[in-house]
Amino acid sequence: MQAQNNDKESVKELWAYAFDEQEPFLSEFFDNFWKAEDALVIKEDSKLAGALLMIPYCVSLNSSPVMSAYIVGVSVASEFRGRKFSKKLMRECLIEQKNRNMALSLLIPFNYEFYNKLGYRMCYTLDIYELTQDNLPYIEDISPVKRVQVCDYKKLNSVYNDFCRDKNGYIIRTKDDWEYIFFEQKLSGGGIFAVENDNSFSGYASFSEKNGEIFVRELVYKDNNSLLSLLSEFKKYKKIKIRTVSDKLLLKQILNPKNVLKTIPTVMARVTDIEKVLSLYDISDLKIKIKDDLIEENCGTYEKIDNKILKTNNKSFDVCLDIGSFTELALGFSSADELLFSNRLSADEKTIEKLIKIFPKQNNYINHIMEE
User: For 145-168, what is each residue's pLDDT tens digit?
Assistant: First the structure.
């Protein structure tokens, strides 16, 4: 059921218990960002048993904007554990998202296997660089770098949009999103550096710093000079940790790059509105059968009829896969031949060739999303 405003304090207490959240983050988040209309709760005898929060985001999927929700704070009170309340919450959440015309459900999992069983699949990764000053080049001809404030969000957003132009699945950021980014960076003892050129920004890095070390949470730039200018700023620190999308341009600037880079899984996704997602692709001559063990209403054969994506009871189909595999395919994280190889998709060779063209592999990117 949807939360009410008077549930706020009890949900806040549950978060503090379940995630060991500390002040001042907890109070500031609930005072400024938690909204009852985006929260779901389960109660028993008027007592809060479980809760979650759906944070709305607009995401670019196959170069088209689609509404989605990031799920956070999935929690169950200790006395109600073992009764599958988390699964009940998630099922209700997925149905609610579809009712709200949200095409994707996103989350950072506390347990990958739990969410795999619910149809979520890993669709995003990030690269982590762990560096010292010796790994960064010495650069003389650089652009000025300054610390910026939330009032500069439009300039930051312009750089971000340019950086994401060749990427998929990224958040189309709003002023509210930037306000949350600055809020989070402030609490972690950091901020945002930006490269300034002609009264505009050509790159930025959001970061936190402590004891002569810097953690770069997002690194964005328009050109090589901007990248080098930011790396020069990082060279002031003893240890540098950079989290970023897969980036060969950055890798080429790292000195002695052996053993400094690892790739980590981050965000899992699940398609919640199959018709909406399929409408973004040309599936004119394909019948796609999808199985969904959690949301039975999603099961069926989808095809394009009179320029609309419809679910039918057609028993013939060209390709068959479950909702998790379809999510990987639609987001470009796995190709049709990869899914076929791992026995997660069935289709003939000709259909596989079509699917590879319709659903190409993509470089998915999400950063600055709230982590549990």
Answer: 999 999 999 999 999 999 999 999
- Edge to edge, the sheet with strand 125-132 lists 145-148, 190-197, 200-210, 213-221, 239-244, 125-132, 261-265
CB neighbour list of residue 359: distance below 8 Å, 6 or more residues apart: 281, 329, 330, 332, 335, 336
Give the count of beta carbons closer than 10 Å to the beta carbon of residue 84: 11
Give the residue ranges of DSSP H helices in the chain. 8-19, 25-32, 85-99, 112-116, 153-163, 175-187, 224-234, 248-253, 274-278, 323-330, 336-341, 349-358
CB of 290 closer than 8 Å to CB of 317: no
Q: How many CB atoms lie within 10 A of CB 340?
A: 21
Lowest mean pLDDT among 50-64, 136-150, 222-236, 324-338: 136-150
Residue ranges, comma separated, of all CATH 3.30.1050.10 domains in the chain are 273-358
Q: Which CATH superfamily is domain 126-265 in?
A: Gcn5-related N-acetyltransferase (GNAT) (3.40.630.30)
Q: Which residues in the chain are classed under CATH 3.40.630.30?
A: 5-121, 126-265
CA 22-23-26 angle, to 5 degrees, is 80
With contact defined as beta carbons under 8 Å apart, do 323 and 119 qualify? yes
Q: What is the Cα–Cα distance from 202 to 289, expressed in whole angstroms?
A: 45
- Nearest alpha-carbon partner for 68 in 76, 60, 59: 59
- Answer whether 284's CB lies under 8 Å from 320's CB: no
CATH 3.90.180.10 for domain 273-358: no
Given the structure tokens 């670019």, which residue do they identify?
60
227 Cα distance to chain centroid? 24
Question: May I ask the CATH architecture of the domain 5-121?
Answer: 3-Layer(aba) Sandwich (3.40)
Residue 365's alpha-carbon distances to 74, 146, 187, 245, in angstroms, are: 23, 25, 24, 6
- Range 272-294 average pLDDT: 96
The CA distance from 12 to 32, in Å, is 13
Q: Residue 357 gets which letter from DSSP?
A: H
Torsion sign over Cα 212, 215, 218, 221: positive
Is 32 within 8 Å of 183 (Cβ atoms)? Answer: yes
